[in-house]
Design a protein that fits this description.
2 domains, about 260 residues, 6 helices, 4-stranded antiparallel β-sheet, alpha+beta
Amino acid sequence: MEIKQVFPLFEEGRILKRDSLDLMRDYAPDFFSLLFREYGNGVVTGFSVRGDGKDLVVSPGILKHGASFFCMKEEARLEFCMYGQMVQVIFKRTGSSFSPDFKTERFELSLEPVRVLGDGEYELGRFLLEQGARLRSYEEYQDFNDLVTEFNTLNPVHIPYACEGGCTLAPFILRLYGKGVFGSEKALPLDLSFSVACLNSSIVSAELIQRYLLAREQGGDGDRGNWYLYQGLGRLYARLVSGGEKRQKPRGMGGKTMID
């Protein structure tokens, strides 16, 4: 699925077009650049994934790539037929082009078997769906432990959410953690403070999560990737909320469609 965004280019000697003014009205690059200039690449907001019959639906969203921001203004649909295998929803930059009046950024939305992503590729979730089953996501998660199951549940852990200095876990993952830990009688003051940050902040940076894990587990500095952060929070959640060790997690498609 190719997705493109058009930027007006104002050059001396060219006729000012109404379309250019409309695009300038609808898109505010200076605002985004100033607000998120310290952020790394990744999802800024939106791009939630849900099932709808035989289709996957991806909601509108904003993604940061380098110094640019891509705004998908309408939901996109992908036909799904890759049952019985672990797949990931990938949002990939495919290039840009220029005309005398416009710059166009192109992205592609696709379903592929899970693989290591390259530069300009962003995961929007992964799952293994059985034939005849319905995909669970977002509003249907029961608690923090319910985010990663072996079948039929969207795994959001690997989605890179842009934050200062890089990317981090999705805000709703951390809200589920904060909600569970905040009500635990075993929680220490540090746990409660971190839980408040999870519940009250639009984004919690990977650095803050890392420092919290180091303080609580007294371990050495390590990889700050999303899976590492999630596993660390999972160990603490098991001790503070679940009352024991966390249950085992899973083992860890390819249609495409185009959007103009």
